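[SOLVED] Need 3D model of a two-part complex

Original post:
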Amino acid sequence: MIIGGGFAGTHAAKALAKLPVDVTLVDRRNHFTFQPLLYQVGLAVLSPADIASPLRTMMRGSSNTEVLMDEAIAFDLAHRRVQFRSGAEMSYDYLMLATGATHSYFGNDAWEPLAPGLKTIEDAIEIRRRILLAFELAEREMLENGTHPPLNFVIIGGGPTGVELAGAITDITRRFMRHDFRHIDPASARVILIEGEKRVLSSYPEDLSISAERQLRALGVEVHTGLRVTGVEPGIVIAGDQRFPAAVTLWAAGVQASPLGKLLGVPTDKRGGVFVNNTLNPPGHPEIFVCGDLAHVEQNGRQIPGVAQPAMQMGDHVARMIEADLNHQPRKPFHYFDKGDMATIGRLAAVAKVEWPFKAHFSGFMAWISWLVVHIYFLIGFRNRLAVLSQWIWSYFTFTYGVRLIYGSQALPGWTDKDGVEIHPAEPTADEPPSKSAAAD
Amino acid sequence: MIIGGGFAGTHAAKALAKLPVDVTLVDRRNHFTFQPLLYQVGLAVLSPADIASPLRTMMRGSSNTEVLMDEAIAFDLAHRRVQFRSGAEMSYDYLMLATGATHSYFGNDAWEPLAPGLKTIEDAIEIRRRILLAFELAEREMLENGTHPPLNFVIIGGGPTGVELAGAITDITRRFMRHDFRHIDPASARVILIEGEKRVLSSYPEDLSISAERQLRALGVEVHTGLRVTGVEPGIVIAGDQRFPAAVTLWAAGVQASPLGKLLGVPTDKRGGVFVNNTLNPPGHPEIFVCGDLAHVEQNGRQIPGVAQPAMQMGDHVARMIEADLNHQPRKPFHYFDKGDMATIGRLAAVAKVEWPFKAHFSGFMAWISWLVVHIYFLIGFRNRLAVLSQWIWSYFTFTYGVRLIYGSQALPGWTDKDGVEIHPAEPTADEPPSKSAAAD
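Solution:
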C-alpha cells in the first residue's frame, strides 16, 4: 500500500508494477502534481492540466495496481491496518508513506489566508486569482480616482520557490502586461522578496546565491536578505522596523512534513519528518517505508533535501528492496545520487549546480536552458510535454500567455484605496441579482 | 459603454475600435467565455483556458477601448449614468447592454445546488468535479463493500446543452474510462435525459429531433420525453411518478435573462428579456442598445433564439448603427441572417440544420464534421484553436483526455451507500490535520 501519489509514490508504483505484488496507491487527490512547475500555474502561464495527471491514467497499464481516492487518518501498526476517512479499513503487507510536506507558518496560522503558499493546484489557482485581480482592481481605481494603492507583490522566503515567484512576477509585469492596460503602468509594480537568511537560495553554493540575487535585481526585484518577517496583516507585511504595503503577499518561507508522519507514532524531527534508517524504515518497522519530503534521511552528515530528485530515487529504491525481499536477498541501503539542483529566475535567467555528469556551476542563459530541458523531460506524459513546450514557445515569442482567468471572489484581503476603504469588498455570487435598493431608473 | 463581454459585447467592441469613439467594455469577469464548448470543460476534455480569453488581451490592439472588471448595479437613464458595484459611477453617450442569460429553476431555487447548470467556467469546473468524483467514489465503495449505489447521471432538459451533455457523458463512460477502473464497470453507468416537451431539441425541425433521439439511444442514453421533473432532492430526481436515483444531476432546462434587463426599468418579457425595436433599442431610448440573449427581438413573427450567431450579428450591427449616427445617416434595421444551427451528440454524431449557403438537414458524421469546423473557426484566438484541435485529435485517437482534475469538496449531495449513509460526507480542507481522536498506534 502506497499512501501519497507524488514523485516518490508514483515512482514506486510504476516500479512495483513489474513485480508479482498487488499495489494500492492512495491519494486524497485524483491527480499527481508536477510541483516544480506549479508556480507557472500561479502565474497564469500554464493550465492546471498541463502539470497535473490523473493517477488513474498514469497507472492505466499497471494491471496489478489500483488507485484509490481517500485519506489515511489512522494507523494500526501492530495489525498492519490503515483507517481511511471514508470509513474504509485496509490491511497491508508493506506500507509506503510519501505524503510530502505542506506550508509552515511557524505557529502564525492567521497569516495563511493573507499569504497563501504554493503546494497544490488549488493554491496555484488562488495565487493566480490574487495576482491578476490586483492589476484589474488597480486599473479600476486609477480610472475612477486617478490613483491606485501601491501595486506591491511581497514574497516571503528566498528559497527556490520564492526566487522563481519573484522573478516570474517581475517578468510578467515588465514584459507581458505592458500593452494590456490603459491607465496603470504594470511595470511600476514593485516585487519585494524578503529572506531571513543572509542570502537567497541559502541551500545553494554561495557563488550561485550571489548570482541569483544579481539576476533578480537586474530584472527589477527588490531583494531584502537578513530581514525576518514578524507580522503579516491584511495588506501589510512587517519585517524588522519596515512595513511593506502589499497588494498580494505570497508565502515561500517554511515547510512542515505532512501530519501523517506523526500519526505513525514513530520518532520525527521538529518539522514532522520521520527519522528513517538507510533502508528508509522507521526504527523497528522493516515493513514500513517513509519516502520523499516526509522522510528525514541523512547522508554524509547532511539531510537530503525535500525535492523531486531524491523522492523519485527513494520510490524506485523501495521497489528494489521489496524485490530483494521477494528473492530472499538482503536489502541494499539507499544512496542519494545527486545530479544537481537548479532554480529559474526569469526569461533566460537561472542558476544551476550540476553534480553529474560533470561538476559545474552555471548562471544565466546556460542554466536557463538546462532548467528548461530537465523540466520538460521529467514532466509526466507526452501530451503535457508537448502542451507545455508549445505554450512556452508561444509566450516567449508573442509576449502573451493564455491562462489569465479570474474566478471566485473579487476581493484582496486588506488592499485599500486612499481613503482606507477596502477595494471591492463586495462578494457577488455568480448570479446574485443586484440589490433592489440600489436600483434607479 | 458596453456592459457584458460575451459574443455581442466583444463583437461590438471589435467593430467600434475602427470608429472615432471611446469604448469602455465592462464585465464582472476578466474573460470572454466561448459558451458553445463549455460542456467540454465540464467533461474534462478541455481546460478552462482553451475556451476562455482574457478580455484585456482580446482588446489589446484597440487603443480606443478600455476594459474594466466591474458589475453594473443601477442605471440612471435620464442622466445617462451607470453605477457599479465597486462604487464607481460613469456616464455614457451610448449604452449597450449584453449581459446574457442565466439558469432558471422556475422558482425552485433549492434545486440549484443539487442540479448545477452550465453557463460559466465556474459551473463547468463544478460539473467536472461531480462527474469525476462519482466514478472515484463508486470505485471506492465497490472495493470496500463489493457494491456501489447506482451510477446514474440525470440530465434535466433536452435542448442542445442537455443533448450535448448526455451524449458526451455516455461517450466518456463507454469509451474513455474503460481501462481506468479495476472494480466498477464505467460502461454500466446510466445516462438519463429528461425532457418535458414531446421531443428533444424542440426548437429544431422534427426530423432532426427524431434523428437526435435515435443517435442518443444508439450511444446508450435513456431518453424520456414528455416527462416533467417535479422534484429534485439530494440524490433523487422525481419526474411524473418515477423516482430516478442520481449520482449527479445536471440542469439544462431553463434560462432567464440577466437581471440587468429589469434594472433598466423598461418593458421585459416573462423571462426578463428586454423588448427592443428593429434598431435594438428599448422604447424611447435610441441611445441604448440591448443585444444577445438579454434582448427580446422578433423577426417574421418568431423570437430570435439566444445563441451565439445572432448575438455576434447584433454586436456588429450596433457598431454600424453608431457609425451611421456619426455620419448623420439613418440607422438600418437589424436583420438576423440565420446560417443554421447544430448540436453535437457524441463521437461522429450530431445534427445540423443548414440555412446558408444552401438549405439542408444533416445527421451523423456530416453534421459532426460541420460542427467541428464551425466551432474551431469561431473559437477566439489562434492559440486556442490550435490547443483545442490538438486536444481533440489526441483524445480521438488515444481514448485519453487530460483535464480530469478534481479539486474542492469530496462529497456529492445525497449520494448514499446501501445503508443510506452519505458517501464521504467529510469535507477535508486542503491541509487539515486528521482528527486526533482517530489516531492509533
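Edit: The first helix of chain B runs from residue 7 to 16.
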